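Researcher: I'm preparing a figure for a lab meeting and need a structural model of a single chain. I don't have an experimental structure, so a prediction will have to do for now. The sequence is pasted below. Please return the structure as tokens so I can convert it later.
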Amino acid sequence: MSSSPTAPIIVFITGASVTSNCWNNWKSFFESQGYVCYVPDWPHKAAPAAALRRQHPHSSIAQNGLADVLKVYTDFIAQLPASPIVIGHSYGGLLVQLLLQQGTVAAGVAIESAPPRGVAVWSWSLFRSVLPMLGLLSSLKTTFLPTFAQWQYAIANGLPLTDQQSSYENLAAPESKKLIRGALSSQARVDFRRPHAPLLFVAGGADRIMPAALNRANFRRYRHAQSIIDYRELPGRSHAMLGQPTWREDAAMVLRWLVDVGASVC
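Model: Understood. Here is the structure written out token by token.
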């Protein structure tokens, strides 16, 4: 499963409304542990966050749909020398689940995952956070960009103001409303009874936009008894888990799980 006998591959999968820079710390951590790591950009998003924000609301990002972004990873994985581990955050967690369904990856980690079609719980914070992203009364030809106030509430709650500001400046990017709505479509359907590679769900105890209850519901839908599936809920983590001060501790937990299921260099 590796590009060499000692180097398994990890493909990090970015979520919505951010750039791939959200993975910088995790990529460095796993590379230090002997993994070969890749962080492909979503279509039209291979630029710094500030540059992407200047293109809002008439950014070409608005063209992206779920199928377009999934194809980026499907095509990228197809040209790798071996099946990779895929680790995704938020919308990237949904993409992890869809990639596992294709049977082309060695293991998956879905961190604070957006759910597949049909998985839902009632949560006021989820409704308040996601509804603006859908842009139901606006044109699909324009992008959604979270305001700083929306970022504070839905993404970076609980962080010091300076950390909220720096994470917004460094990561916040316009997003396609077409893509967000795609998570509610048949394209986002998962066959929960199908055999799959080992899968770990990681939930944030303080996550408002993808609350722990939603992650648990997602995890509990899987029904193939012979496939490995696990769940971890981390207290105090907001949706900005990847960049919180506890990020190294959380990455180490994922590493231990990969070792336990055999998807490691150890």
